[in-house]
Amino acid sequence: MARLDTQSKLEILADAAKYDASCASSGGQKRSSMGGKGMGSTTGSGICHSYAPDGRCISLLKILLTNSCIFDCHYCINRKSSNVRRARFSVEEVVQLTLNFYKRNYIEGLFLSSGIIKSPDYTMEQLVGVARTLREVHDFRGYIHLKTIPDADPELVEAAGRYADRVSINVELPTKKGLAELAPEKDEKRIEGAMGAMRHHILDAKDAKKRYRHAPRFAASGQSTQMIVGADGASDGAIVTRAKGLYDGFGLRRVYYSAFSPIPDPSAVLPLKRPPLMREHRLYQSDWLMRFYGFAPQEVIAATDDKGMLPLDIDPKLAWALKFREHFPVDVNRAGKEQLLRVPGLGTRAVGRILASRRHRRLRLDDVARLTVSIAKVRPFITAEDWRPTHLTDRADLRAQLAPPPAQLDLFDTPRPKAA
Ligand code: SF4
C-alpha cells in the first residue's frame, strides 16, 4: 500500500464509507461536557444533524478504518478483487481526526466501519481500540457507532458495545440465497448469532440499569442493520418479511434500506442498473407502517403487485387502502386509533390530535383538513360531521385521482421517510 498523508486517506476512506446508510444517530444517550469535564457532547448548541443531498446523515465523521478487505462480496467496492486505491488509518489517526473534527464542531460523533484486514478478530480489535481510546484516554462523550464483525471473538464484539452508543451488523442481503450468491464468505447463521448475542447483552445491561443506578451502559442506542436493495432478485415482499423478522427476533432499533448503487469496477454478477431511489423510500414507508401504524407484514405484502413489488407512484398505505376499500370510510368522530391510523394521509400526530379534539366537539372536514397535508387524499376514506364520501370511496378511477402525475425523481429530491 502506498504511503499516503492523512488528507488523502480521509478522501479515500470517507468516500468508501458512503455506501453504508446506517449512520443515523437518533436515540443516543445524553452526555455533556458542560462543567469542564471530558470532551464533546451528544446534545447542545452547535451540534447539528445535517443530511447529504441523497438523504444520508453526514453529521458524523463517517469513515472506514481501511478499505482493504480479505473478503470478496460482489456488491462491495472494497472487495478483495476490486481495483480501487487502498488506504488504512491507524487507531491513533482515527482518534485524532475525531477529536479535531469534534473540536471544530464539524461532527457530533463517529461512525466507524472497516474492511476486514488479516482476520475478523484483528479488525475488531482495531475498531474497539479506537472507541476505547476515545472514551478512556480522552473522555470523549460524543456519539460512537461501531460496525461489528459477526465472525470476531464474542468478547471483542461485547467490548464494542461497552464503548459505543450504537452497534450494527449488516445482514447485507434480504435472503439467504442472495447472501450465498453475492457474499459467499458471509453466513446468515453467524450474522444472526452475533445479533442474538448483542441483543442479550443489551437486555442484560438494561436490566442491570433498572436495579443499579451506576450499572455500566451497553450500546444504549441499540443495534441496527442494513439491507442492500436491488442487488439481488429479492422482492419488496421478501424484504419486508425479513425486516419484520429482524425487528422481532433481535430487537433492532432500525433496519436501513440502501438502494444498490452500481460501483466502479463492478462484479459481472451484479445488475447494471441501480433500482429507483423511490423503491428505497417505499420500503422505509413500509417499515414505518409496521413499526408505528400497526400493519402486519402480510398486510404490507397485500399492497404489492403480483411480483411482490410495492407501487412506486403511490405510498404503501394508500396502495393498501385502495385494495381493501371495504375497511372504509372511517368515521373520524367514532373510529378507534387503529382504524384512524389506516387512513391514507393521516399520520400518527394527526390521529393523536383527532382523538384529543373530538373529546370536546364533533369534527368537520375542515377540522381534519387542518391536520393533514392533503385533504384530497384523506376525503375518500373518512366520514365527518358534515362529510360523506358516498360513491367516491368505490370509484374505479380513485387511484388515478390520487396518484401524483408521473415525474422524474431527481437525486436531490429524495424524500425522507414518512409513512402517512
Ligand atoms: S466484508 Fe465488508 S468490506 Fe469486505 S468485501 Fe464484504 S462488504 Fe466489503
From TrEMBL:
It comes from the Bacteria. Its cofactor is [4Fe-4S] cluster. Coiled coil: none annotated. PROSITE patterns: RADICAL_SAM. Keywords: Iron, Iron-sulfur, Metal-binding, S-adenosyl-L-methionine. GO terms for molecular function: catalytic activity; iron-sulfur cluster binding; metal ion binding. Residues 53-296 form the Radical SAM core domain. Pfam families: Radical_SAM. Gene3D superfamilies: Aldolase class I. PANTHER family: ENDONUCLEASE/EXONUCLEASE/PHOSPHATASE FAMILY DOMAIN-CONTAINING PROTEIN 1, TYPE II SECRETION SYSTEM PROTEIN K. This is DNA modification/repair radical SAM protein. It comes from Sphingomicrobium sediminis.
